[in-house]
Amino acid sequence: MSDTTDFVQTEAPVTVKAYLMCAFAAFAGILFGYDSGYISSVLGMAKFREDYGHPVSLSDVHAVLKGDPPQAYDYDTWQKSLIVSILSAGTFFGALISGSLADRYGRRTTIIAGCVIFMVGVVVQCSTTHVVSLSIGRLVAGFGVGFVSAINILYMSEVAPRKFRGAIVSCYQFAVTIGIMLAACVTYGTQNRNDEGAYRIPIAVQLLWAVILIVGLYLLPESPRYFVKKNDMDKAAKALARVRGQPVESDAIQDELLEIQANYEYEKDIGEEGWRACFSGGFKRNSNLRKVFIGTGIQLFQQWTGVNFIFYYNTTFFQQVGLRNPFLISMITTVVNVVSTPISFWTIEKFGRRPLLIWGAVGMTVCDFVIAIVGTADAQSTAANYVLIVFVCLFVFFFASTWGPAGWVVIGEIFQLPIRSKGVALSTASNWFWNCIIAVIIPYIVDPDYGNLGAKVFFVWGSTCLSCIAFAYFFVPETKGLTLEQVDKMMEEVPARLSGGWKPRERFVQSTMLRKSELIEPASNVSGGMVKRVD
């Protein structure tokens, strides 16, 4: 092979049907997004506060801010914190467990199991009108969402073609935004009902998304890399042929499969496959520990941008600062979220992962500090409220087009096959752990009876977004245009700051065969740098 471009051609061509199959897997994001999004509006419903809360008088600060009648209802801060955060707690543990299950039973099977568990949780949430039952239901549902959110990213990364892997995995974040928007639309339509349907309908609608995902995944193939890991090459070839839309016997399918197998054998020879392997190698450039640090770190910072403060508590926060039509404003932010995300389909493949993360964090930092400064200097004025609405929407735009999709794309690309399922599971668990922590503490730092920060909370988010810039610059590698096997080689050879200019110089199947031939054959059998293909 004469130039580096030849070394990049290690993947079979893909048909339109195959692209659509890969993209459908992103539907799981609707499940995640809807479940995360409906709770914000439900918490602000008068009927929900009546059924789950306790009577308060007109003199109560919360009642005045929310414009309730003299005999109003509200819930305690600890109840709001528990109801919101318990989902993330369940998701954290579900994500951790899912990695081992995906290696043992398959990626697709684990996602389907997660959907079934999620449906059980939804049924429990609809069963009674009590904070305890609602919380238990959200905990169980969160367990299922943990399976789905972790392994769906793994599945999509393993089946998507490298040239459009970033765009296809970004479809997952797009589906998340659609789920959040659908939740806002459904709750907007039911908010004025005077019966339990006001909040039960938004909760029950989630069952539909789970059923659609189960049926769709049943029709999709398993990840070919899972079968390679299981050493079942016949099934691996059939699965790869389906996701590429090519005949099993084609040279392109056989070549790509050989490259995947060679990389797996190489990684298996030099390292372990268990959980302990995820923390091996110290902090050197291509160690497993460093990859886990990058994966968990990027998910930590994605949460500490403050985006879930907006989507978990936007309705109640807008009520507290005195905005009119908080449900409508909440729905507008979700529409901005949906419209902005598809921009990343093009930019993530055109400019890469690193530029999106760095410049997206810059934009979010500016928005946060503008909101905080104006909201502190001229609190609850008309001007401050307009600034809040406009810059929250701008913040959502920057997040949805950069950190939202790119954070998921990167964690699906940086881990090698022997630890990929566990690495993605740890990274996703990090997302949900910090999601839970933020959901717990926000009511205590924002509610009038406690921290009462109001708009000052955006000073916190602005500071954490500054940290996002530094983390992305120094640690996150550029993976655009590389196969998952080439990403591992790139991280071995260059630091993150120089990764954008790296080009592959050899194929794993070549280096592996050369290494084996040097051990079992005389040097004279290797001529002119050419290696005989070994089946």
TrEMBL record:
InterPro entries recorded: MFS_dom, MFS_sugar_transport-like, MFS_Sugar_Transporters, MFS_trans_sf, Sugar/inositol_transpt, Sugar_transporter_CS
Topology in membrane: Multi-pass membrane protein
Main subcellular localisation: membrane
Gene Ontology MF term list: carbohydrate:proton symporter activity
Matches recorded under Pfam families: Sugar_tr (PF00083)
Subcellular location: Membrane
Domain Major facilitator superfamily (MFS) profile: 21-480
Residue spans crossing the bilayer: 12-34, 82-102, 109-130, 136-155, 167-189, 201-220, 292-315, 327-348, 355-374, 386-411, 423-446, 458-476
Alphabetized UniProt keyword annotations: Membrane, Transmembrane, Transmembrane helix, Transport
GO cellular component, one term: membrane
Keyword Cell wall biogenesis/degradation among record annotations: no
Record bears the keyword Transport: yes
Domain of life: Eukaryota
Family classification: Belongs to the major facilitator superfamily. Sugar transporter (TC 2.A.1.1) family.
UniProt name for this protein: Major facilitator superfamily (MFS) profile domain-containing protein
